[in-house]
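Good day; I would like, with your permission, to put a structural problem before you. A protein sequence and the structure tokens that stand for its backbone fold form the material at issue. Thank you for your consideration; the sequence and its tokens are set out here:
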Amino acid sequence: MEIKKLNSILLGAIEEDGSSDFREQLGQLIISIEQAQSKKIETVVDSIIAELRNSVFNDMSISNHKILEEIGANDYFGLGALDSLEVILEDSSFNTAKTVSDLKNYVKKRNEFIRIIKNLKSGFDQLGFSHHISENDYEFGLLLPSGSNYDDIKIVTKELNKWDKAIKAYRELVGLGPDDTKLTLVNNGSLEFFTENPEQVALCISFTLERLFKLYKNLLDIRGAWDQLRNTGLPKAQERAIKKHEQDTYNKEIDSIVTDVVKKFVDKNIEAGRLNELKISIKGHTNYFAKCIDNGLVIEINPPEIAEPEILNAEETEENKKEKAKAKADHTARLKQIKNLKRGLEAGKEIYGLGKEVFRMLTTGSIDTEEDTDQEEIE
């Protein structure tokens, strides 16, 4: 695992432990069970559920969540902690002594874990391991699937080259220069590559991915209905019609995605001829993202931590009243934008784990033979 990302996760765990009521709630739950206070138990359990469902760990990116699991933190934060508690409470629901004993043991292990990560975090800080994303940039991750042929240098190089071309195209679309993509972080434990780009690029790509996730689910529903009909003896003519409907659905939505991306994000200074070339390029990269989803490649976008503007902590005066109001509005709008981005990409966590090739044969008709030429054409 990558130490700088690990250090960032440790910080999040320590901060959440210090700011949440989970530790105190566990103590209250144990006392309530020991004293057989059924109403109190119900109240405390409800508050624990609310606390853990609001944990920042539930919104973690796939790469960060993998680190969380590797260090054994999943049992102590967010929905993972909720699952652990539900097991304890359900397994010994008729044995109060065992429930209390298991809860105390859980608290002991959790406290020991917090102690360990605090010491580890302190050591990392002293050694200068820190992972920080500029407030103006978003972190993009390309996570290659393990246990596949992605340990071949040629294949990894090819994917990184496609990723570089895609980012360049979106940068140019929003009015930034098509600079070469710089790797800012590499997690070589599971072939994860990270780079940073401005917010406009993040919004373009997240918008595209969100629409692709919806298309993926739509096509999955069509396939499900198709399978049911096939079991009833679907005539060949109707089967061909359904296949055509799939292809038409895919083509129509890809065209719609490209049109909407250009409409929402294009820089007005791009001249018409170059804009037409970019539209073709964006369509090619949208097809590439669809293939990534099918092939188990994960594209993730991690927003920066946004600090509250300093002016909001200043005493309001007649002179700074308008400036404070604007700073507050801008800050609120950006936080909302980040929240919407995270929500839009949430479906990807479910989809990446399905392992179904929904887009196969719909992108170009031959995913194996035309993939390379597609990329050459859209440069």
About this structure: Residues 365-379 have pLDDT under 50 and may be disordered.
